[in-house]
Fold each of these.
Amino acid sequence: MAILHGSWVKLDQRGILQGARSSHAIAVVGQKVYAFGGEFEPRVPVDNKLHVYDLDTLAWSVADVSGNTPPPRVGVTMAAVGETIYVFGGRDAERNELNELYSFDTKTNNWALISSGDIGPPNRSYHSMTADDRNVYVFGDCGVAGRLNDLWAFDVVDGKWAELPSPGESCKGRGGPGLTVAQGKIWVVYGFAGMEVDDVHFFNLAQKTWAQVETSGLKPTARSVFSTCLIGKHIIVYGGEIDPSDQGHMGAGQFSGELYALDTETLSWTRLDDKVDSGDHPGPRGWCAFAGASRGSQEGLLVYGGNSPSNDRLDDIFFLALAQN
């Protein structure tokens, strides 16, 4: 039986550094990492520049953009379909929840506002977002009137939003869950629903039905705002908040530095050996920007910045290479 294991490397950073931040987002197109949004001080958006990190040269730059640039925001999400990046929601400097969907064409460096107002999902921040070859999916969290558990799909070909069936009370409204597409299903993993939770649900895209799944193995403790990606059939979970701060978003809770994988076929969790004692390990953190990425022939998880147990925002970048042997 093949054993999945991970190896972290801390990446150098050159060029125009964008500085420490959390509650931001990244999307990867080819060997370019696009970063947007975030905060250095709690709830204060830093800027609305689109920062670009080259995985080959390890250098940052600021994209020279045109079009309708999104205003600064925190708790925002990004996902890439082909060479186009989609940015949805977040919270502005006046702490208003937002619901605009923007696209960014990485070939022309042009921003476009696609939907807003009554079109598409209601206003929200600190939600989760993922994509497949045709659709961008948005799930959860902080809406105007509380935590959400609705699931929406934006068809990038037809240019239309569709609200998918609700999971009902079995999957409570939550923020900071893992959200991935695997095995023809959209997976909702853990999250914060007034407390850290450890349930796993999926929405079957063909049958249009929800199910809560029972997992086995060495499962992670309840957590939210962790970094995640899909590698093969495995949902990778790194870090996250395992105990919230009594100061809410103004303070740091207790964070994990653990690494787990959920096999979406066997529904079994595995705690991965990722050399915690190495100097390249990112350590405990949450509220990071993250995405699946490739370096050379290796697939893995890219983690950028986030919040530390001391409530300091971070500015480092790590790549977790995953392999089986």
Amino acid sequence: MSPPNCSFAEVNTLVGILQMAVHIPTFILGLVLNLLAIRGFSTFLKRRWLEYASTSIYMINLAVFDLLLVLSLPFKMLLSRDTISLPSLCTMAESFYFISMYGSVFTISFISLDRYLAMQYPFLVSSLRSPRKILMTCGVIWLLVWAGSIPVYSFHGKMEGFKCFNNLSDSTWSADIVFPLEVFGFLLPLGIIGFCSSKSIHILLGRQGHTQDWVQQRACICTIAVSLAVFVISFLPVHLGIFLQFLVRNGFILECRAKQNISLFLKLSLCLSNFNCCLDVFCYYFVIKEFRVGIVAHRPSRSQDTTVTRA
């Protein structure tokens, strides 16, 4: 716990202003882009174009998670400003926020793995990429994030007069919660995405000189690299901030200025990660478009969905 003379009032005031400046355009842009993405990819499913089905399902699932995060932002801005008198409303908003964040992380991981396997073992994995099995995979993602959100319900313990998304209980910052969150919520997905992205780039580089559309594939390589960078920039600061705050709340960091800086860093990192819901639409729409042209052309048949999806 912070000593009585260690005030976070200035940090909270500054963060409140920055949240308004970031969250309002993020809400507007994210709402429009993700609704358009859901509508666009739903068109492929309605027209029963099987070669686009699996990719479309993954992308719709991602857009739904991002849309859920966008819709949670107004609650985050309003409920974090004053003490809350409806704990259930606060819990619901916090739950939706973290479910959407980690739902996006897991969806990116599965899409990256799916893309790599489709490039490396196109015939072996073709039977695993049917729309029904992709739907089941998305269902598993939803079950995982809902089950992982259980600790949210004890974020504030039995305290009264707290601010939503603030004043988390000491039990929330225990090693039993923080370490699994860091490992399974970020480090493991980062390893999967990094491995699959590097392997995919290596495969494309190996095709240099053996294909007539190298310019197209070079653009695909750039898109994969940019997408990986966006993921790291969006989520690495957040999980670094969570770890530092864990050290603060468990008494490893005691200096007041350090605590204030860590609190500011964590809250600013969360603001930055929220904008990922807008960047997702741009980055991965072009990944799908680029790889359909660059990879599907090498397949003997377009009867199956062999497109490379999200980085």
Amino acid sequence: MSVETAASGAREAGGSRGSSGRQEGPGGLWDSVKKAGFVIGSGILFLAAFGNSLTWHLQRFWGASGDFWQNLWTKLYVAYEGHDASLFFLGTMLAPTLAFWGSNALLLWVDITGTPSFITRYRIQLDKNNPVDPAKLRQALKCVLFNHVVISGAMTVVVYYLMSWRGNPCGPELPTFHWALMELAAFSILEEILFYYSHRLFHQPSLYKHYHKQHHEWTAPIGVVSIYAHPLEHVISNLLPVVSGPVLLGSHLSTTSLWYCVALVSTTISHCGYHLPFLPSPEFHDFHHLRFNQCFGVFGILDRLHGTDSKFRQSKQYERHTLLTSFTPLNESIPDTQKKGQ
């Protein structure tokens, strides 16, 4: 191990250790939990009050196309009648796999070749991965493939038996639009809670050193390393926050598969390293890889409540943390402040 690597590890662990004392703030963890409950509860009340108005128009569209989707599902259901396990495994592995590798195919091409320039000009950390180190990428891909095929595949089997114990995840009727939308909202809230606290847990010095440090080898992440992690971390911090919602709600395969696709594409964007026009901002999680002890969550709700985004909110990255609605890179429209003498 080089002196530079050892020093980097000490800074990371020290940063995590030093920040943990500051992050709790007045009132401690319990005070933050109460605040989180208030915010999440208010959000649920808001959805209950205004959900019907928001979804009425969408339901009209869904109603017009609902028979089409139901007929497609019925044909698939009949074709796999008596083989629910195969249908479930197909739906929760094939569609998410296509979503993950489809979205990463273009990103990998850009990372490896440095072209086209239309995309590379939106790179967040301009001096990194230009192009990506081939040896480092090969090592990451081996781990990613293992996690995706072996670990996620095994988790899918466990999830199938849990959901079958609760009900029938491959039932003949698709969920209504309203119910599917409410489920997706519930999944998102649960993911934010479980990912935030499990992620912070893996930043404790002892766990960080043995498990989470692997993921943070990429201080400037790329899309595919979103699931580059130790298998234990992949189960606890990547998979459990995503699969818990469908298991607890006894969701239909269609909603579960859609949610897995959304989660994988979302984490790919968060790690991609490019702040592209009209896509969600990845600045929040990119800053986490850069600074290690900031921005632990998905949406930033719990980070705000726990104060673990304080440095982020004082940075240029926070100013750029918005939906880019033009074709001018935010590194150009909101440039870094030059140091004196430059």
